[in-house]
Design brief:
Layout lengths: L8 H7 L2 H4 L6 E13 L2 E9 L3 E7 L4 H5 L8 E12 L2 E13 L9 E2 L9 H4 L32 E8 L3 E2 L8 E8 L4 E7 L1 H5 L9 E5 L2 E4 L13 E5 L4 E4 L27 E11 L3 E7 L2 E13 L4 E8 H6 L7 E10 L5 E3 L5 E4 L4 H12 L7 E2 L7
Parallel strand pairs: 3-5, 3-6, 10-13, 18-20, 18-22
Antiparallel strand pairs: 1-2, 1-4, 2-3, 4-5, 7-9, 7-11, 8-9, 9-10, 11-14, 12-13, 15-17, 15-19, 16-17, 17-18, 19-20, 19-21
Amino acid sequence: MSPQLTTGVCDRLGNAPVSEVNTISVGFTVQVCSIKKLKTGTLDRYFVTISDGRTFVRATIARAFHCQVIAGRITTNSIITVDNFTCAIIRGKRIVIILDLHVVSRTVKRLGNPVPASSVVREATLPSDMPDPQNDPVYPAADDARGRPTSPIRCIDRFAQKRTRVIGKSEVGHCEQRGDGGKVFMARVMDESQEIGAIGFDGAVDTVYDKLNKGNVYYISQAQVSQVTEKYQAGGIQNAYQLKFREGPEVEECLESTKIPIIRYNFIPIASLEELRTDSFCDILAILKDVGPLRRVRCRWPTGMRSRSNRRINVMDMSQHVVRVTLWGELAETFVADNLSIIALKTVKIGGWGVRCLSMTSYSVMTISPDIEEAYLLRQWYEAIGARAEFRSYPSTFSL
């Protein structure tokens, strides 16, 4: 018996007002009638025709599901259930963006004889009307903060806005590689599904930087999406994409309560640093042992040598090891913490060849006295055992 399609849903997707489209209940079942791969800018996109057996509309699939198309798990005539979607207006035309789905069947034939919904984009005009992610504006389907459609980071797609928490933000620097000394900053944002790095240039520094405060949640739309290779993944963030803020991104603080966590950690013991490769990243929860003086050091940059603020601290943990952590820039200049404070380090870089040490980067996040269970357990351990224990120090800790 063939799966039952959701009759009438494609007519609503294609013809109903956009504000009404985004109120359609998810979980509707449709058939994939065709799949087309298009290159938009530097990214590949998959556009599909979906049918309810009577009418069809065109849609695009979030990049998280591209691998299923490539692997043949989503094919022509597949029956899918759409678990999350949104609708956007692009160059005056609407497009349905499938953010989450699961495949019901791949063995059935074409069901019905569907005709196009009146608002569908015709095949002949599809390539010229598809947006270039680097240039075209996208208009959100709703302008009400409580009713606006959002999509999770794991379904990264420039067409749909994100609701994310800022968990880290760098200082404003200068993009030396470009040769014009343009301004640049980096940020780290997350939602319930995943983290992603963001980078802002020039005008975005003036319009976006001051709006983004660590710990707050924001709606972000019209940010460019670009792929990054594993080598250049932002500061150890496990995401093959990053957000780019140039001219025109929209950032608005979300004042409603959300379920987005404050931050996620994957702590490792300091003793295990010897097992990890240099230039990889890790999370550390430790107790502050020593604080070195603020210094100015000469660093090599693409345009030559530059002076930068630097401070070294030593931290220790339950593995009874001590390691040095280097702080840079404003963090080094403003660092204030009581001795034996608990410090959580997110995505700190592992350095040293044979002599292990850690270094904060633009994407690293430091939290002093974090309000997490692991911090309370570490404090209890130190008061009961650690204060009288012997610690092994990596050689890097001998000099601050």
